[in-house]
């Protein structure tokens, strides 16, 4: 009998030593003359126990983690390959680990189970069933299903995906060419869900994009992937090659008359290139400068043609919807937030990782029931949700349900689902400064409130932090934030004030500490 040992192969597990662990397992297996195969599966996304080594048993997969090189010898002594639980790192059946068991993995159902580049694994776990269904439907029927699912864009703005697709389907293309562009620039703080799709389940994204092509009549797709994700680019290219070889891409997809080509393009390394119009400029080979809207990219997009621009997670949700049905997706969630969102728990958190849940539970439940509070063991003080432009939430707001409208009511955003936690050693005036500084570095420079305002913002915060005319400068900062919100061309300048304003509102003591306020605004 061949024993099968699974060692994850995604970037985080590798960074934590998974490659060395895999090599050592192979080495010890040879030493012990065991018939053992090491498979490099994808991660489960439970990062506090990575590298998580799993062994196949008749009851299911048993887990051991976090496994360091120095643990391999004792694991072999304990005959871990039989699923023996008599080892300090033994975690029992992986599927029974509460962190995993309590999730609702619609999009990430294959995470940690399959070999990312194995087409057989993908197909054996419901892969390409959505495409097989979609190919039998008309474009309008596919768009209707996406509308019925209630799916809203997972890249940040939460715009209904079905409506966007309908616009592209309806519009005439001057050159008879429409495009599907996947926004894989994932630059938000603490986010890694897009990367997990691309590294761990690349066929799912390919399938979602082919279905999007069928839905709107597009024959060419591009994945604009951030340059900092080399393994994503490698795995996507490999999976695309396999998909071409097996008639899931190219001409006559699955024997039909449908055609879809797909390429990966490396991003230019700027946060603003994640903004959809800036991304299109960059894809066209130009500097990533934001375009004024209208016209919407759905009407005048890449190379002037109608274009669907969707986030990785939006496109990755499509195979589930087309396989299990729009209703199965729409049936879960809260209010107008339907389906699931893969939350990414990071920062000062005890149990960091990917938590895919139907919308609805509270932020508190996510941070404590899953995250286990802070890693430092100190009290949690602030949490930033929705990337670097998202608001900081104060304890009084943590009981909010995880839903787009519920967060909007608290002047906050869910964005791409990144949750970054801070303990009570955080200085919120420093965090506010960081937000403005981030905008200075990442602004595309097209409009004044963002380009100049962010620089002035850093200066004002510095004056506040050094105790200079604190009340007057706080008023000035509030005015500046309002100007940026109202006057900026895109959400970069328009949202940078959110973290600043929330820090000033809920953590004011960090701005006025150890200072003597002069309240003299005339000096300004
Ligand atoms: C400054 C800025 C950065 C953004 N970065 C990303 C990103 O990295 N990935 C993404 O999908 N959307 C990003 N967006 C949102 C996109 O502009 C766009 O709304 C999204 O790609 C549309 O896809 P969706 O409807 O599937 O969410 C960003 C927006 C702004 C203003
Ligand atoms: S708000 Fe900033 S990033 Fe957006 S267009 Fe203006 S300068 Fe560019």
From TrEMBL:
Task: State the source organism's domain of life.
Answer: Bacteria
User: Sorted alphabetically, which Gene3D superfamilies does this protein's record hold?
Assistant: 3.10.20.600, 6.10.250.1450, NADH-ubiquinone oxidoreductase 51kDa subunit, NADH-ubiquinone oxidoreductase 51kDa subunit, iron-sulphur binding domain
Cofactor dependence = FMN
Q: Where is the signal peptide?
A: none
Task: Fetch the InterPro entries from UniProt.
Answer: NADH-UbQ_OxRdtase_51kDa_CS, Nuo51_FMN-bd, Nuo51_FMN-bd_sf, Nuop51_4Fe4S-bd, Nuop51_4Fe4S-bd_sf
List the protein's name: NADH-quinone oxidoreductase subunit F
List the transmembrane segments: none
Matches recorded under PANTHER family:
NADH-QUINONE OXIDOREDUCTASE SUBUNIT F (PTHR43578)
NADH-ubiquinone oxidoreductase 51kDa subunit iron-sulphur binding domain residues are: 429-474
Q: Its family? A: Belongs to the complex I 51 kDa subunit family.
Q: Which SUPFAM superfamilies match?
A: Nqo1 FMN-binding domain-like, Nqo1 middle domain-like, Nqo1C-terminal domain-like
Q: Which UniProt keywords apply?
A: 4Fe-4S, Iron, Iron-sulfur, Metal-binding
